[in-house]
Amino acid sequence: MASYDTIPSAAKTKPTPFKVEIPQEKLQQLEQLVKLSPLGPETYENLFEDRKYGISRSWLSKAKKEWESFDWRAHEAHINSFPHFKLPVTDDDGRKHSVHFVALFSTNPSAIPIAFFHGWPGSFLEFLPILSLLKSRYKPEELPFHFVVPSLSGYSFSDRPPKDKDWTMSDEARIMDKFMRELGFEAGYVAQGGDIGSFISRILGAEKESCKAVHLNFSPSQKPDGVSEDDANELEKKGLQRGSEFQRSGFAYAMEHGTRPATIGLVLSSSPIALLSWIGEKFLTWTDEDPPTSAILESVSLYWLTDSFPTSIWSYRQHFGPNQVPGGVHGSPKYRLNKPFGFSFFPYELMGVPKSWVAANGDLVFYRQHESGGHFAAMEQPEELLKDVTDFVQQVWK
């Protein structure tokens, strides 16, 4: 009987099935630390419920109480209802790099491979709602696509970046391309991404032959020459205003990640409540509607239980300092997409830009604008993003 964990016959290396199983001692330690961690005192700033100055103390207090009795095992059971694997990839220097991934494989020989790449503070968890939709609609033999969701280096159960190398997004794209080809998709695959995943997807599309098309839901860039902001529609203009405000008052975290990753990594590894404050703020302020607290706690728990925070922020160094990409990855001529490129606009994105700006940086053949949804599109609007991606792929795949 066909199943979603049937490995494609063309795979060069068979991935090893993997089960998420956090040691009980680690869970007990987390529970104890959450209970013992104090909250900071009330201040003028943390009494604002509109998060004008960041997370509110009242939200954090309620979330802390819920976390004290959080049933990780129930979430773990749901996570394990999807096929998980690990696959070793050999880098150009001969080092082995183990990639964790979730996948729904089709047994249809003509299925099209699509890789979904997450960002920070995301993880493979963002895409489970999409995988749930697919399981409800298709049997393995009917599934028209292979859906592969890898964990980027340093996130959850994938190997961490090497400690003796200044890991870059180009390094990560190289590993992810090797990963997809090792799975048997050397003839071609589609890359999809938001946040950091959008940078990885763009680099794959620009540099790797096996990546045949790219779909993004995040593509911040500067206004191209010859393009007027007056041409933007109302949703796009609001997106530009949101982006301007984000750069003015919401970008400090990224500068900290990029310029002082050692410090913030050690700080947020010392207290789960500190980590909840840092990550929880992003889920609350980067979304159209507040996600359930349980969903935020699931994500933060995954970061804490896998010690992922300090190993997951390596990409931010390329936004600041000597590794900075001129013009940004999405605005760099080096990474222009000269192959089929699709884009989904969600109005509460952090740095939404007009269609004309997106089109200036690639061969834009598919574009769809939505009325709701924010930075975590796969989590917030799984139906819409899934339809966009599959419509795009069916349009361009030859």
TrEMBL record:
Q: Where is the signal peptide?
A: none
Q: Where is the Epoxide hydrolase N-terminal domain?
A: 16-127
GO molecular function annotation = hydrolase activity
Kindly state which keywords UniProt assigns to this record, in alphabetical order.
Hydrolase
The protein's matches in Pfam families, at most eight in alphabetical order, are given as: EHN
**Database matches in InterPro entries:** AB_hydrolase_fold, Epox_hydrolase-like, Epoxide_hydro_N, Epoxide_hydrolase
Q: Fetch the PANTHER family from UniProt.
A: EPOXIDE HYDROLASE 1-RELATED (PTHR21661), HYDROLASE, PUTATIVE (AFU_ORTHOLOGUE AFUA_3G08960)-RELATED (PTHR21661:SF39)
Q: Which family does it belong to?
A: Belongs to the peptidase S33 family.
Query: What name is this protein filed under?
Result: Alpha/Beta hydrolase protein
Q: Which organism is it from?
A: Phyllosticta citribraziliensis
